[in-house]
Amino acid sequence: MKDTYKTITTPSTETLYKEKNSKFFGYAFPINNEDEVKPILESLKKQHHSARHWCYAWQLGTDQNISFRANDDGEPNNSAGMPIYGQIQSFELTNILIIVVRYFGGVKLGVGGLITAYKTTAQYALEGADIVEKTIDSEFGLYFEYKNMNKVMRIVKEKNLNIIDQKMELDCFIKISVRKKEAGKIKQIFDKLYGVTLKEL
């Protein structure tokens, strides 16, 4: 079972591709949800207010829960957004947004020329980005009484589990994240522990 994915953690540096007086500026951004796209786009539109097109593509999610969008922003159909998205796929990335800003130089490039320009600019942006591999994690909630705390914490320590959140009172709650392929094993261990309830979140 594949339980890793590739993404970027910080925005890439600006890249530039020129073709027949047209300029294409490329940017890659890490995103965690679709709501982040619009503010990033708006800020680039302010920065490049005299540009002609702000084309983009993004992909979110891992495993079966992948969503994506490609936008030509007024360029001929599939000449901008899809070539950008193609680079996201060829670099095997997710949770990423790539925007290519075009200043028109007065000479039409034709659909083939546009596809090459948007694809190459997206490729430059990704080559200039810091690509990292992350694990796909499952999240669980552990519910138990305070008296069982030591038992639970011993397993958390032994198995090197990542604690995301915790509430320690008479009734305790710990939220942990576990690598997807380890999840079944961890679930079995806690299921055997008397007085501890494990729920997938």
- Give the distance, in angstroms, between the N- and C-terminal Cα atoms: 20 Å
CATH fold assignment of the largest domain:
Ribosomal Protein S5, domain 2
Strand line-up across the major sheet: 2-3-6-4-5
CATH architecture descriptor of the largest domain: 2-Layer Sandwich
How many domains? The number is 2
Low-pLDDT ranges:
none
Count helical runs.
5
**CATH class designation of the largest domain:** Alpha Beta
The rounded Rg comes to 23 Å
Number of strands: 11
Strand content: 35-45%
Q: Which H/E pattern describes the elements?
A: EEEHEEHEHEEHEEHE
Protein name: Impact N-terminal domain-containing protein
GO biological process, one term: regulation of translational initiation
Domain Impact N-terminal: 20-126
Organism: Zhouia amylolytica AD3
Structure, explained:
This protein is an alpha+beta fold. The protein folds into two domains: 4-134, 2-Layer Sandwich (Ribosomal Protein S5, domain 2); 136-200, 2-Layer Sandwich (Alpha-Beta Plaits), CATH 3.30.70.260. The chain is 29% helix and 37% strand. The protein has helices at 37-47, 81-90, 110-127, 149-158, 183-191, and strands spanning 4-8, 15-19, 22-30, 53-60, 67-71, 96-103, 131-135, 137-145, 162-167, 171-179, 196-200. The strands form three sheets. A five-stranded antiparallel β-sheet has the order 2-3-6-4-5, sandwiched between helices. It has a four-stranded antiparallel β-sheet with strand order 9-10-8-11, with helices on one face. β2 (15-19) and β3 (22-30) form a beta hairpin. The chain is elongated and about 75 Å long.
